[in-house]
Amino acid sequence: EIKQIKFVGIVRNIVQQSVNVTYSVEDGTGKIDVRMWINGESGEEGTRDQMLDPSIAIGKYVRVYGELKFFNNTRSVTAHKIRAITDHNEITCHGLEATYVHLCKTRGPKSVSAVSAPYSANGARMGMDDGMTPVRSAILDAIKNAPSNPEGVNIANIQQSLAGRFQRDEIVSAADWLINEGHLFTTIDEHHLQATNAFA
């Protein structure tokens, strides 16, 4: 069963309420409501501004990271993060990625020997750059290898486990990148992190 998803679409409608904002997002296959809950007990304006990207508007493309929900035979997405797309190459790239995943699911993945990737000048195999660096990969591994806990893993525990390999600032910066790219999300507070595919 699919739980965690990411997709690209165009915003068709925005409905703001005191505790959440609902975006109606169309991705070319249909339209779905994406709900972003606002943290903060009193719904202070500062909290709303930090949670919501002001560049998201009707008619703009966005990338959504979230959890697929079913209620009363209706699908919706509870968003971990929504960000506006500023580079339209990302839309094309997402379309190609979706096509690739569909073909892998329906026809099976190609064997490694059947895939020919170009080589760079130093002989290394080239492919799509996913932005993963050693510190980012180490953080993901630390979270995935931690005991299962819906509250996630405290960033202090990650820093402690990676202390001999990476500097504290490096780990914080890498964790921010992983959150912005949808690999991680915060849980009970901004210091507890969970991988988006942890319960998939």
Describe it:
It contains 5 helices and 8 strands, in the order βββαββααβααββ. Helix 3 packs across helix 5 (168-180). It is globular and about 50 Å long. The strands form 2 sheets. The protein has a 5-stranded mixed β-barrel. It has 200 residues and is an alpha+beta fold.
Task: Offer a quick outline of the entry.
With 200 residues, this protein is of the alpha+beta class. Helices cover 29% and strands 29% of the residues.
Q: Terminal Cα separation, in Å?
A: 7 Å
Largest sheet: 5 strands, mixed, barrel
Rounded mean pLDDT score: 80
Shape: globular
Features of the shown structure:
single chain, 200 residues, alpha+beta, five-stranded mixed barrel, three-stranded antiparallel sheet, 5 helices, 29% helix, globular
Give the helices and strands, then pairings.
Elements: E1 4-16, E2 20-26, E3 31-37, H1 45-51, E4 61-71, E5 74-84, H2 89-107, H3 134-145, E6 153-154, H4 155-161, H5 168-180, E7 184-186, E8 192-195
Parallel strand pairs: 3-5
Antiparallel strand pairs: 1-2, 1-4, 2-3, 4-5, 6-8, 7-8
Helix pairs in contact: 3-5
